[in-house]
Write a structure and sequence with these properties.
683 residues; alpha+beta; paralog of FGE (formylglycine-generating enzyme); 6-stranded antiparallel beta sheet; 18 helices; 20% strand; elongated
């Protein structure tokens, strides 16, 4: 791809010209998918596995009206070698494609090199889901920006909202920009990247006309995920976007049944990019030739669309790609492609081409895609939203993309998205866009410990020394204990304290109380004798005393001398230990919330202790507590050991309750709750 095709607005380490497929590899915490939403994922590879997914429930109501249903089915992804070579020939030499390798050899080789990772075709199953009828518009994204600004959360509005929408302010900043970035054509970009969260914005183009109905651009992958999470949605996977683009057909190029499946100059007219004045974003839906088979607008040639998958990797796996590559090298014309694509697990992809793809038509193939950094904000890159059937799934899924700390996870432990449970409720404005979104969701880890032999009793005892990670909890409302809305790792700790700590607390308490009494007696004697305290003596360095063993022990649990001298410590149990400054009760089980690597609050355990039992279906109900607040009750099972996944017969069953600071569901304002069913069996 040429640099003009994306026209970067951030420092790009993008390999310009590379078009390719990615597999649906996710971050380490993403293993599996919702049983009734996104296609299930294989726990070891993270790839979609529709055969393992539960049958989707299409009975969904109360969703925003801009979503269109994409029926579940198979989609062909990737290109057979002969088709790939032929399509590349059409793109570079549309007037006489069969002679492209001879008369336009250099351009032909370049086109194949820049798109070679789309080679190799497979049929992929995709479950039913919902997809935005159009790419997210400026008028929709500004709601998110306005709310963040009102909540005093840093948010960077798209560059052109300031540059074009507030031209006077932009011009006033030019001297500072030139001073900070002398002789740099990207100075305004760098200034916006640094100061964008402070700058004003309006939805006006360079001529002062409203661009409210244009697709939003200059939004990074991370910001797009944050926006999606705010209204309980997510970015589509590549398989889903391919399904919405190709449907049940086999087309290589955009266009319906009335248009031949070839590239020629008429394609530019079809996609509204034949004239110079067309080379910009347009109001959504104005290019009728860019419609997908299920009615989605602007699927091709308007703006590149971000995909949720993390990683620019072979879509069908490296083995499949290498097999296809060998086939390409044996092809009489295909062997002109000499270099493999530079895959990268840290990049993300965009699909669909843009109004700038007129100069490099290979970008308009249905299988084409380009890699970018997660922080890139580009002039011709936008996004559209996807929605899973399972309530709450997308909210947690999108949040963990941008603000989830995985340092506590063991390698490949991940979250079991196939056992995620959630609930949600939309309030829609007159235009059908969400004016409010409420949700709560929990995803357990795939397994508790990575050992060959473990018992629940031993594991529970070990939680006294180190609480164990059990999953992630997301809430759009504040918790009743004051914890802010957001996504948290959840740890479990059994009630009680280790014997060594109890003995240390007893010993420390006894010693400190004795020392305190002796100090008090000494002070009384000196006062009675008229001896005044010597300030100089008090400031003299004291000889370092040997560190007591009990002090070493209590320090492991965050306790200090001030804690140990408390009268409640006489029996060796203060009733709490301290982790990251948070008091964790020891007189009952506790579920601990953590974020950014630190414990932040505690949810009290229930009367139901974790037990080992047969696999159970995850359950969630919401009840009103005595004050009418939402009491969320979660019931779920987690395999004790990683090795259990091969033959899952027993799980550790937990009951977790969370009280939210919001009104409980009512008959006139119900929540979407999960459907209960039998748990899936691991294959």
């Amino acid at each position: 791809m040429q640099s003009k095709s994306l026209r970067a607005t951030a420092l790009l380490s993008i390999s310009l010209g590379v078009l390719s497929f990615t597999n649906c590899l996710a971050q380490a915490q993403v293993a599996g998918a919702s049983a009734s939403a996104l296609s299930a994922k294989n726990k070891s590879t993270g790839k979609p596995d529709a055969k393992a997914a539960a049958k989707p429930n299409d009975d969904v109501g109360g969703l925003p009206t801009f979503l269109l249903k994409v029926p579940g089915g198979d989609v062909l992804m990737g290109m057979p070698i002969d088709t790939f070579v032929e399509a590349s020939s059409q793109a570079v030499y549309p007037f006489n494609p069969k002679f492209a390798y001879r008369d336009a050899a250099k351009n032909f080789a370049t086109a194949m090199r820049r798109s070679s990772s789309m080679i190799g075709r497979k049929q992929i199953a995709v479950d039913t889901f919902f997809l935005g009828k159009w790419p997210v518009k400026n008028s929709e994204y500004i709601i998110f920006v306005d709310k963040r600004r009102a909540d005093q959360i840093d948010v960077r509005p798209p560059l052109h909202w300031w540059r074009d929408g507030c031209k006077k302010d932009f011009d006033e900043h030019l001297p500072a920009i030139r001073k900070a970035f002398p002789k740099n054509s990207r100075g305004a970009l760098y200034f916006w990247e640094r100061e964008g969260h402070k700058l004003p914005y309006k939805l006006l183009d360079e001529k002062g006309k409203s661009n409210a109905d244009h697709p939003v651009v200059y939004v990074s992958w991370r910001d797009a995920n944050a926006f999606a999470a705010s209204i309980g949605m997510r970015l589509p996977t590549e398989a889903e976007l391919s399904r919405a683009m190709r449907g049940d057909g086999t087309r290589t190029w955009p266009g319906g049944k009335d248009h031949p499946d070839v590239y020629n100059e008429k394609m530019k007219v079809l996609l509204g990019m034949a004239k110079t004045t067309d080379l910009r974003t347009k109001p959504v839906g104005t290019v009728t030739g860019a419609m997908g088979p299920f009615g989605h607008l602007d699927m091709f040639g308007q703006v590149w669309q971000l995909v949720g998958d993390l990683g620019f990797n072979p879509m069908h796996g490296m083995d499949h790609f290498l097999k296809s590559w060998k086939e390409l090298q044996k092809h009489k014309q295909g062997r002109l492609c000499e270099r493999k694509p530079p895959f990268s697990g840290s990049k993300v992809i965009v699909k669909g081409g843009s109004y700038l793809s007129y100069g490099e038509p290979v970008q308009l193939m249905l299988d084409a895609r380009a890699p970018i950094e997660t922080s890139d904000a580009l002039e011709s890159v936008g996004f559209r939203l996807a929605k899973s059937i399972a309530p709450g799934y997308d909210y947690l899924y999108s949040l963990q993309r941008v603000e989830f700390d995985t340092s506590a996870f063991e390698r490949d432990q991940g979250l079991a998205f196939d056992r995620l449970i959630g609930a949600e409720r939309y309030t829609l404005a007159a235009n059908g866009f969400p004016s409010d979104y409420e949700a709560v969701a929990f995803a357990p880890v795939n397994w508790l410990v990575d050992v060959k032999s473990a018992t629940l009793k031993k594991l529970a005892e070990e939680t006294l020394l180190k609480p164990i990670l059990i999953g992630a909890l997301a809430s759009a409302a504040k918790f009743a204990n004051g914890t802010k809305p957001g996504l948290y790792s959840v740890f479990y700790r059994q009630k009680g304290i280790p014997r060594k700590l109890r003995d240390a607390v007893k010993a420390g308490h006894k010693e400190l109380v004795k020392a305190k009494k002796e100090a008090e007696k000494k002070a009384k004697r000196e006062a009675k004798a008229g001896i005044k305290a010597d300030p100089k003596k008090d400031t003299k360095p004291q000889k370092q005393k040997a560190v007591r063993k009990w002090r070493i022990e209590i320090k492991k649990f965050g306790l200090s001398d001030e804690d140990i001298i408390d009268p409640n410590a006489a029996n060796g149990d203060l009733g709490y230990v301290i982790i990251d400054g948070i008091k964790i009760p020891t007189d009952h089980d506790a579920f601990i919330l953590s974020t950014r690597g630190s414990m932040v609050s505690v949810l009290p355990g229930t009367n139901k202790k974790p037990i080992k039992a047969n696999p159970v279906a995850s359950r969630l109900i919401i009840e009103a507590d005595e004050k009418g607040k939402s009491l969320v009750k979660l019931h779920f099972g987690i395999p004790l050991m990683r090795s259990n996944l091969k033959n899952l017969t027993k799980v550790v069953v937990f009951d977790l309750h969370a009280l939210l600071d919001q009104v409980a569901p009512t008959e006139d304002k119900p929540w979407r709750l999960p459907k209960t069913g039998e748990p899936k069996k691991n294959k």
